[in-house]
Design goal:
alpha/beta, Arc Repressor Mutant, subunit A, D-Maltodextrin-Binding Protein, domain 2, 3 domains, two-stranded antiparallel ribbon, WH_DNA-bd_sf, LysR family transcriptional regulator, transcription regulation
């Protein structure tokens, strides 16, 4: 049978207050409307729940049996609704995005500071993962958008280019090559190099651009993150090839970034989001800040 919640609410209110008048006032109803709700519930049950006299309203045996069960049921239902409301508030107040670690280190601090001034009550969860992981998070809806390397292989996502970033040779500032303004690939063919894992977008871009030439380079070490590679460079263990932003991400004043020519390599940074899925207001505000930040960076 369908549960008559309005009738149960009326029943509980009358039982708690011992009068129709007090219950009607509590529920902001007329006594006629309250009586109608109770009569409907009693008709559905086929039992009288109250014995009415001119001076008192008393529970019948059926009413006494129903009272604790009905009270527990409404209390449990109320708790469940409050829990769902809390989840809804948490979802509304938390914005999740993906962001490459190099961009997160170099750009996000100022972006999030500006965002918090606009929406101080919205928390931000940042997945500073690889490009492939960011794309998957966006596709599953776990992140509203991602700031990442754009890839032609993700037809299922909407892509908005932000900027092109060149790859550079990172070397210690006291290395002989550090005195040059640019280098070509043959300049460091015999230098020990460290590269990142083949599972990363950076590795795929470099390997694709170099082709067979890449095999002539002296790849002595392989790591999972650019920050680790930069640490090896800072300690004079090896040199590495990395995006320009990684110099900032490494937080090492002892490194020099040298543009590489013949060929020069770039990657396209941009925004990935789900196709035909509107963003939340908070996501739209942060995205506008991201675009302005990159636009200003190009103008500097």
């Amino acid at each position: 049978m369908r549960i008559n919640f309005l009738g149960i609410e009326a029943f509980l209110s009358i039982a708690d207050r011992g009068s129709f008048k007090g219950a009607a006032t509590h529920l902001n109803l007329s006594q006629t409307a309250l009586s109608h709700r109770l009569r409907k519930l009693e008709a559905e049950l086929g039992l009288r729940l109250f014995a009415r006299t001119t001076r008192k309203v008393l529970l019948t045996p059926a009413g006494a049996e129903l009272l604790p069960r009905a009270g527990a049921m409404l209390e449990e239902l109320g708790a469940a609704c409050e829990n769902l409301k809390a989840q809804g508030r948490q979802k509304r107040e938390t914005l999740s995005i993906g962001c490459l670690p190099t961009i997160a280190t170099s750009h996000l601090p100022k972006l999030l500071d500006a965002f918090s001034q606009r929406l101080p009550d919205v928390a931000v969860r940042v997945y500073d993962n690889s490009a492939a992981e960011i794309a998957d998070l966006v596709e599953r809806g776990e992140a509203e958008f991602g700031i990442t390397v754009l890839s032609a292989g993700r037809w299922d996502l909407e892509m908005q280019p932000l900027a092109k970033e060149r790859y550079v040779l990172l070397c210690p500032q006291d290395h002989p090559l550090a005195r040059r303004s640019t280098v070509v690939w043959s300049d460091f063919e015999n230098e020990p190099l460290v590269r990142v894992s083949a599972q990363t977008a950076n590795r795929a871009i470099i390997d694709s651009a170099l082709g067979a030439r890449g095999e002539r380079l002296k790849w002595r070490y392989e790591v999972q993150h650019i920050a680790t590679a930069a640490g090896l460079v800072a300690d004079h263990v090896a040199l590495t090839i990395a995006p320009q932003l990684s110099l900032n991400a490494a937080f090492s004043p002892g490194l020099v970034a040298l543009p590489i020519r013949n060929p020069s390599i770039t990657r396209t940074l941009g925004i990935v989001s789900r196709c035909n899925v509107p963003m939340s207001d908070a996501a739209a505000i942060l995205l506008a800040l991201v675009k302005r930040r990159f636009r200003e960076s190009r103008e500097d």
